Amino acid sequence: MAFFNGGSRALVEILTRFQSAERPMPVDHTFFEFGSVRYHVQASASVPENVYLSISTPSLSHEASPSTSLPEFTLQEARKMYRKFAEIVEPAKEGYALTLKLNFSALARPKDRARAVRQVSLLQSVVLGSQLKHLLGNLGSSGATKLVYNHRDPFFVSRTPGKISAVFPMRFRDDTDIAVAASFFQELQDAGSAYARAPRCSWSAIPPPELRGESVHHLTTNGGFVSFDIFERHVKRKRAAKTAWILLNFQAYVKYHIKCTRNYIQSRMRKRQESLAEVIQNARLRGGDDKKKLQARKKGKRRLFSLGKAKKLQKGFRAVIDGIRRLRQRIRVKALDRFRRCFVVPKLATKKHNYLRLGA
Entry's Gene3D superfamilies (predicted)? Predict the structure, then answer.
């Protein structure tokens, strides 16, 4: 349900590869999309110009068209869109609702062929859009019509005087999706009230009055009910197909938007967690460096303390040595000098005795 433009990528790839082949080759492919839409592409090597494309898709409303074949208004819509290079094969291939015979030989330019392939890939949107457009134009005035585009998420449309109401029961699997969806619906409601020409959008946790009488199984939701008011101008001419396709893909778009928002929030939280972890790691590293610096500083202080203590001891030792030196010097008495100047002390004469060596 992620292809909101309505195109089938697998169908584009198959048709493009078939056209770009150098030699004609047979094609016989059957594939499914969205679980309920089935395609079958067939072409023979003898007549490579003709490609038969068959599609089988469930009807939007079994009450409006209970038969397996497509209604006439859908066939007319397909003829109008593919009249230049395709025609409808009647009856359709067994087991399918519609079969087209494609012939791109009339389109000479590659650009025109690529455009035609893109138009063919929109076949499902043409079928479902024409059905919804027809239902919107032929709604009764009483009751709501249940439409099933995705069997898990049906929605309802009802007509009131002057407008058409589309009600979408929203269901989500995760509690996180419910919280994001509530914020999204509030923004959607505010945006709808800000623009006068936009359809009025409302959201409520209980079923709106349009769904009175519906089965409880269809009204059991965990995301509430979203309602749109569609006016007559939205279902006229070219706007009708666009409005129909928007309604068909609204629930898928909401879930896609919520998943993207959730992934964005988770990525931001993951980046924030990584940045906080980096800050904590850097703080731890700086704390380790500060601890090392503190230890080095303490060691430096210890060294400075030991050096200061050694200097003090050396200074004290020098003081002791100087004191000892002062004690060894001659003690001078100041009064003795004065006494010497007053009295002359005669010098005593000394005789030299010469001694003879005995036994000389």
Answer: 3.30.1460.20
